[in-house]
């Protein structure tokens, strides 16, 4: 009997048996069959973890999740550990963590006896980023409310919203204006 299909499916070794028992063909076949039944395709993984198939492939390419075992025909097969890892990643992404932070937390997750100081620092950094985003969004809301409030809902030619959007300087424009005025003032001083 060829047991190589087990390795090509799971990329892990057979489970350890108590003592030094060597299984006969029937026992080994039942172990392989039981493990095979626990495996599923990328489509099933996608539904269980609520992550798109293309996202799963991307995470595999960048090494965020391990490459799965494959059948002889090349089909990817996954197990319950893959669902848990992808669910962890999805939840972290929903909370706004970037890939580098998620990679670090996944690495730390593999050291259960280590201090959680590093994970706490990563989460604290994310909280600061979220608070900064909230502040910017509140400023955007205030600006939009002001623009809408100044609109008389007349003709586009007289629309205050269009006027404000057209006249609003970007940070690069403001820096250029400041630089230009600095040059002009410098020239005036020397004339």
Write out key terms for the chains shown:
191 residues; mainly alpha; Multidrug-efflux Transporter Regulator, Chain: A, Domain 2; 3 domains; two-stranded antiparallel sheet; 65% helix; disordered N terminus
Q: How would you summarize the topology of this molecule?
A:
Blueprint: H1 4-10, H2 25-37, H3 42-49, H4 53-61, E1 69-70, E2 76-77, H5 80-94, H6 99-109, H7 117-149, H8 160-167, H9 171-190
Antiparallel strand pairs: 1-2
Explain what the structure shows.
With 191 residues, the protein is an all-alpha fold. The protein folds into three domains: 1-91, Orthogonal Bundle (Multidrug-efflux Transporter Regulator, Chain: A, Domain 2); 95-149; 155-191. 65% of the residues lie in helices and 2% in strands. The protein contains nine helices and two strands; from the N terminus they run ααααββααααα. It has helices at residues 4-10, 25-37, 42-49, 53-61, 80-94, 99-109, 117-149, 160-167, 171-190; strands at 69-70, 76-77. The protein has a two-stranded antiparallel ribbon. A hairpin with a 5-residue loop joins strand 1 and strand 2. The longest helix has 33 residues, at 117-149. It is elongated and about 70 Å long. The termini are far apart.
Task: Give the structure's gist in a few sentences.
The protein is an all-alpha fold.
Q: Specify the overall morphology.
A: elongated
Number of domains: 3
Written as H for each helix and E for each strand, in order along the chain, the element string is HHHHEEHHHHH
Question: Count of DSSP helices?
Answer: 9
Return the average pLDDT rounded to an integer. 79
N-end to C-end Cα span: 97 Å
Question: Can you tell me the CATH class of the largest domain?
Answer: Mainly Alpha
Radius of gyration based on Cα positions: 29 Å
Beta-strand content: under 5%
Helical fraction equals: 55-70%
SS-based structural class?
A: mainly alpha
For the largest beta sheet, what order do the strands appear in spatially? 1-2
What would CATH call the architecture of the largest domain?
Answer: Orthogonal Bundle
CATH level-3 fold name of the largest domain: Multidrug-efflux Transporter Regulator, Chain: A, Domain 2
Low-confidence stretches: 1-15
In total, the number of strands is 2
Major sheet characteristics: 2 strands, antiparallel
């Amino acid at each position: 009997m060829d047991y190589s299909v087990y390795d090509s499916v799971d990329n892990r070794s057979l489970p350890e048996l108590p003592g030094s028992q060597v299984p006969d063909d029937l026992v080994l076949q039942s172990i392989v069959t039981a493990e095979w039944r626990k495996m599923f395709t990328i489509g099933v993984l996608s539904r269980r973890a609520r992550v798109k198939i293309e996202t799963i492939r991307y995470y595999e390419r960048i090494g965020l999740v391990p490459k799965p075992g494959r059948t002889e025909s090349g089909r990817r097969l996954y197990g319950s550990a893959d669902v848990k890892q992808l669910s962890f990643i999805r939840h972290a992404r929903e909370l706004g963590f970037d890939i580098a932070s998620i990679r670090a937390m996944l690495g730390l997750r593999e050291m259960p006896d280590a201090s959680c100081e590093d994970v706490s620092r990563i989460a604290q950094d994310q909280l600061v980023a979220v608070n900064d985003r909230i502040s910017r969004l509140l400023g955007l809301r205030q600006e939009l409310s002001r623009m809408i409030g100044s609109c008389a809902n007349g003709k586009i030619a007289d629309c205050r919203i269009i006027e404000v959007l057209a006249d609003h300087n970007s940070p690069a424009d403001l820096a250029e204006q400041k630089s230009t005025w600095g040059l002009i003032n410098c020239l005036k001083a020397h004339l």
